[in-house]
Design goal:
Belongs to the sulfotransferase 1 family. It holds the Pfam family Sulfotransfer_1. By secondary structure, this protein is mainly alpha-helical. The chain has 13 helices and 2 strands, in the order ααααβαααβαααααα.
Length: about 240
């Protein structure tokens, strides 16, 4: 969801300019906030942030964000995905990511236990989502969106984000953005341009993303255990997810 949302917002601030969007890798247009400045995976700063707004994306927890962000001095869009599908996505991410040791032999059962405990890279899904949910309730410079809403009605989400970031689009520009960021385009690996091994892995990873794919991985016992955990952790939060 983070990569998809990054490409979506980048497409909006580039006003649907497909030539520019396809000429630069998404990781150049929307670099990682937490990446080391001289990381060889990324271009030099003179090629970054070419649109009407400067963009960064991150998986950092709220307390690790720069102070200016937490003080509302820039706009923040947080995308959440239902935790069952997110767990499956994170499982595949761990299996292909070199920086996490590329745990190719990691089994779903092993990962499920780690994921539920929160003893995993980026920590507990519940802590991460709930902290940002509470943060966005009281900060006008923040927007909390759902992966499932993007899948259901992308054009409505584009319109909302246009207004939020202050880059209104024409109908033609909006149409180009929606087409460029549709899952059919994503499956053709058009959202991440480049030829590095990292690009290829991200492209492969992004071809996943169906709502309800968790049913192909969770056992009945795992699903019951997770439902119980979810009810305990999310009680009183008011967040509603589509599973």
């Amino acid at each position: 969801g983070t990569v998809w949302t990054s490409e979506l917002i980048s497409s909006i601030v580039h006003e649907g300019d497909l030539v520019t969007l396809k000429a630069r890798r998404m990781l150049d247009r929307v670099p990682w906030l937490e990446c080391i400045p001289d990381d060889p995976l990324f271009r030099k700063s003179d090629s970054l942030n070419t649109g009407k707004k400067n963009l960064w994306f991150t998986h950092l927890s709220l307390e690790r964000l720069p102070t200016d962000i937490r003080e509302g001095k820039c706009k923040l869009v947080y995308v959440a995905r239902n935790p069952k599908d997110q767990a499956v996505s994170n499982f595949h991410f761990h299996k292909l990511n070199d920086s996490l040791g590329q745990q190719a032999d990691l089994t779903w059962s092993e990962f499920f236990s780690l994921n539920c405990s929160g003893n995993i890279y980026f920590g507990s899904w519940f802590d991460h989502v709930l902290s940002f949910w509470k943060f966005t309730r009281n900060n006008p410079n923040t927007k909390f969106i759902f992966f499932e809403d993007m899948k259901k009605d992308l054009i409505s989400q584009v319109k909302e984000i246009e207004e939020f970031v202050g880059v209104p689009l024409t109908d033609e520009q909006r149409s180009r953005v929606v087409q460029h960021c549709s899952f059919s385009s994503m499956r053709e690996n058009k959202m991440v341009n480049g030829t590095t091994a990292f690009d290829e892995k991200i492209g492969k990873f992004m071809r996943k993303g169906e709502i309800g794919d968790w049913k192909n991985h969770f056992t009945v016992a795992q699903n019951e255990a997770f439902d119980e955990l979810f009810e305990t952790k999310m009680e009183g939060s008011g967040i509603k997810f589509t599973f």
